[in-house]
Amino acid sequence: MKIGFIGTGNMGTAIIKGYLSVHPDAEKNVLAFDKDPGKLKDLSNEFGIVVCSSMNQLMEQSNVIVLAVKPNIFDMVIPEIRDLYRTGQVLVSIAAGISMAYIEKLMEKDHVKLVRVMPNTPAMVNEGMSALCRNQFITDEEFEPVLELFRSIGRAEVIKEELIDTVIGVSGSSPAYTYMYIEALINAAVSGGMDKEQARIFAGQAVLGAAKMVLETGIDPITLRVNVCSPGGTTIEAVNALLNNGFQDNVTEAFHAAVNKSKVMTK
Question: Do residues 112 and 85 make contact, with C-beta atoms less than 8 angstroms apart?
């Protein structure tokens, strides 16, 4: 199977790197095309992937085509590949706000095989969370390699397309909220006399460890929180301060803001 990437920005590059970290001998099965030849040269030098000089070359040689382009240029890219698409090829879109129905309309072809993916930026360190949905024309056998591709950069779950907006709120955009939390912890630690770099390590590792507790113990977050909060201790004092200042309500509001924006953006 040959996987072609149209676009090698941050997310496209992250997926390529993640996939090759799991399949180090597959570099000749990974193709890429980008309007910026400098990006392609860097990827080729680092990983030995196949650099395509044109969209035509990539489409001609790929079984799976990952559309790793931003939503604002999606309408320009699809017409370029429409006439190059061959029956049986799988198109994978990671563009936010672009529905499968919209892609099918732009393609102007019957039985186009589509997968829509909502990844997130921690994919850059192989800790991404990706949601995948597919249209009715893709078989389980065709879908499995796409699922494997995104599992190589973290975790991946299959969902119904109507849940994509919810995914954006809970994992697509939420790294930004988490960075804000980490930033606040760093700044507070610095104000308490800690070196900023050391504060970054303490705060980052604490969040990483807490997340792993949620994922690996199977214990629900409420129980984990209660277990840490000794009566009359420091943690319960901090938790009460957060609750009194609407911490959870603020996070929920941020979630809904992202979801609602996604709904407005969706084509």
Answer: yes
Report which secondary-structure segment, H or E, holds 80.
helix 74-82
Query: What CATH superfamily classification does 3-170 receive?
Result: NAD(P)-binding Rossmann-like Domain (3.40.50.720)
Residue 129 tokens, joined: 């969370």
Per-residue pLDDT of the chain (267 residues), as tens digits, is: 899 999 998 899 999 998 998 888 999 999 999 988 888 888 889 889 999 999 999 999 999 999 999 888 888 999 999 999 999 999 999 998 999 999 999 999 889 999 999 999 999 899 999 999 999 999 999 999 999 999 999 999 999 999 999 999 999 999 999 999 999 999 999 999 999 999 999 999 999 999 999 999 999 999 999 999 999 999 999 999 999 999 999 999 999 999 999 999 898
Residues 6+ apart with CB under 8 A from 102: 267
Which CATH architecture best describes the domain 172-265? Orthogonal Bundle (1.10)
Q: What is the Rg, in whole angstroms, of the alpha carbon atoms belonging to the chain?
A: 21
